[in-house]
Amino acid sequence: MKKVKITVIRKDFNRELAKEYGVDMITPCTRMNVGNVFYAGASRPEGLCDGAWRSIHQYVFALANGAKQFWFNDWIRKPGTAISCCNDGLRPVFFLIEATDEEVSSPFKKQ
Q1: What are phi and psi of 40, to 5 degrees?
Q2: What is the DSSP letter of 76?
Q3: pTM for the whole thing?
Q4: CA–CA gap between residue 37 and residue 5 (Å, rounded)
Q5: CB neighbour list of residue 32: distance below 8 Å, 6 or more residues apart
Q6: What is the Cα–Cα distance from 51 to 98, expressed in whole angstroms?
Q7: pLDDT per residue over 5-51, tens digit each?
């Protein structure tokens, strides 16, 4: 199992939808910042938003276990990489997810 690097690459804020549906004084995400880097194996890294983890964990798990491409090889140019975002429709945060060469212990194997 490989360690996976998760980098915050973009934060968006949909002002139109936020104005119509958001609470008063809603702002772009305050938990994540562009440039934040996290490393994961099979579990959520410390400091990464729970909602973001629920949205991206399937890519992290696949890359940690050797996936190189997703879908029909018509998505991401670089093997071992994914781009995904949290599911906050008003203020999504986008992540670059990359497999590394560093091995981590699988929580599913007996040591």
Answers
A1: -135, 155
A2: -
A3: 0.90
A4: 7
A5: 8, 11, 48, 49, 52, 93
A6: 19
A7: 999 999 999 999 999 999 999 999 999 999 999 999 878 999 999 99
Is residue 99 within 8 A of residue 7, CB to CB? The reply is no
Sequence-distant (6+) residues with CB within 8 A of 95 are 6, 7, 8, 9, 52, 56, 83, 84, 85, 86
Rg (alpha carbons) of the chain, rounded to whole number: 15
Query: For residues 100 and 111, what is the distance between their CA atoms, to the nearest angstrom?
Result: 22
The DSSP bridge partners found for residue 10 are 94
**Per the structure block, which two tokens stand in for 4?**
């996976």
- Residue with the larger pLDDT of the pair 105 and 16: 16
Burial label for 50, CB within 10 Å (0-12, 13-18, 19+), is exposed
Q: Check if the beta carbon of residue 44 is closer than 8 Å to that of residue 57.
A: yes
